[in-house]
Amino acid sequence: MLSNVGIIVCLTIWANLAKASTCFTATSVTPEMKAEGTWFSICPRSWDFRGHHIGYEEAARAHPETGDADHDVRKEPILLLNGFGVGSFHQHRLMPQLLQYDDRAVYGIDYLGQGRSWPVDCQDGNSENEKDLIYSADTWVEQIVNFIDEVILPKHNGIQKIHLVGNSVGGYLSVAIARRRPDLIASVTLLNATPVWGLNAPGWSGHLPPPALPRKIGRFLFDKIRDLETIDKYLEAAYSNNGAFSMALSQQIRGCTVGNGGHAAFASILWSPPATFPGEVQDWFRNLGKLDCDVLLIFGAADPWCKPAFAKKMIKELSNREALEHRYLELSNVGHCPNHEAPTAVGKAVSKWVSAHDRGASLALVDGPQEVFQEHWGEIAMREKSAADIPVGLIDRLAVAFV
User: Fold this and answer.
1) What is the 8-class DSSP label of residue 302?
2) What span, in angstroms and rounded, lies between the C-alpha atoms of 4 and 9?
3) Which of 81, 87, 306, 400 could make an SS bond with 170 (beta carbons 3.0 to 4.6 A apart)?
């Protein structure tokens, strides 16, 4: 069988193959998959959004001889939404874990202005294809809604909904998408979701091309944050286990920034407004409490930014709903990116969640009071908690109140 190290090595090989749009196929990710002789594939693909090239990936169990995707088109697929500054490569540890438990398709997508998704012929915000473009939450919400409508659902035999799983800003966007198009979303899973996005800075709307001052500020800050030393420091803060990331991940993140559109895109992101929600209420937490679907929260307890204290506020909002379920799982020894640092635990919990018809208390998301998972970089414990079980210190109270 492939160990976690083996998976990383194979997927690094895949990253090189992806340049030629070649599918990566492997087998025996876990003992269970080995026993079943289960193969999986991750295929890089592309799609057009408003004339812009969008990179996405489709993961599925695969035929052992041909490598062709072999998923059940009658099951609601899963769409994984990334955090900021990465591409769908950040989901490569989670995708095989999800496929271990179920033969439903799993998708990942790069937001416009990140990863493999960019306007054609970028010229630092000055090309015709970039004119009037804004890299805002609303742009990304529209992109993902169109992707679900135009790409995912037509492949799945009359299926009308999907399951969203969002990490960090991907969680923020998941709520905006589910509020804007509840008819498309079967459930939402939030992995250390950020409740805020969009500075809406004065002096510019965020539509390209940027004026001189925002351009200079964006260029200066973008060059700072894409420096490899800065990326490494960020990863050291974001992850509880330094062994859970490597120079390869730093290089992948750096690789997302080397095109001709990055400086202008970053300036646009800095000046762009928050997401627009239906109706008068624009607060993200209150819109979370208006979701029309079941919601699973999974939080790494060691996240220095999106802490469990924020999950407690999310639970409070979700508790105001009737006839809909919400659950909260907490992962010890895990930071801001549970999809990448705790893929085994997250994969098992999410698979149980999306497969269940009744997601109430009768659904055991954790085997026993605590379930322990062994990743290559450390031991991770998963527990289900209520809001009352989440301790909140003074600093956390102030942070939550400020947000």
Assistant:
1) T
2) 9
3) 81
Query: How confident is the model over 188-210, as a mean pLDDT?
Result: 97
What would the two tokens of residue 287 be? 């819109």
Tokens of 19: 């340049």
The pLDDT of residue 349: 98
Residue whose token pair is 């990334």: 82
Quick one: angle between helices 212-225 and 228-238, nearest 10? 70
Is this model's pTM higher than 0.85 or not? yes
Q: What is the DSSP letter of 280?
A: S
Residue identified by tokens 């041909």 is 66
What element of type H or E holds 389? none
Element (DSSP H or E) covering residue 4: helix 4-17
Pairwise CA distance, residues 61 & 43, whole Å: 11
Q: What tokens appear for 310 in the block?
A: 């924020």
CB atoms within 10 A of CB 378: 17
- Using alpha carbons, select from 195, 199, 170 the residue that is nearest to residue 270: 199
Q: Is-contact 385 302, C-beta < 8 A?
A: no
Within its chain, how far is the Cα of 15 from the centroid?
18
Q: How far apart are CA 341 and CA 343, in angstroms?
A: 6
Tens digits of residue pLDDT in 217-276 = 999 999 999 999 999 999 999 999 999 999 999 999 999 999 999 999 999 999 999 999
> Which residue in 193, 160, 189 sits closest to 94, CA to CA?
189
Axis-axis angle for helices 4-17, 247-255 (nearest 10): 30
Q: Which of 259, 266, 137, 260 is nearest to 214 (CA)?
A: 266
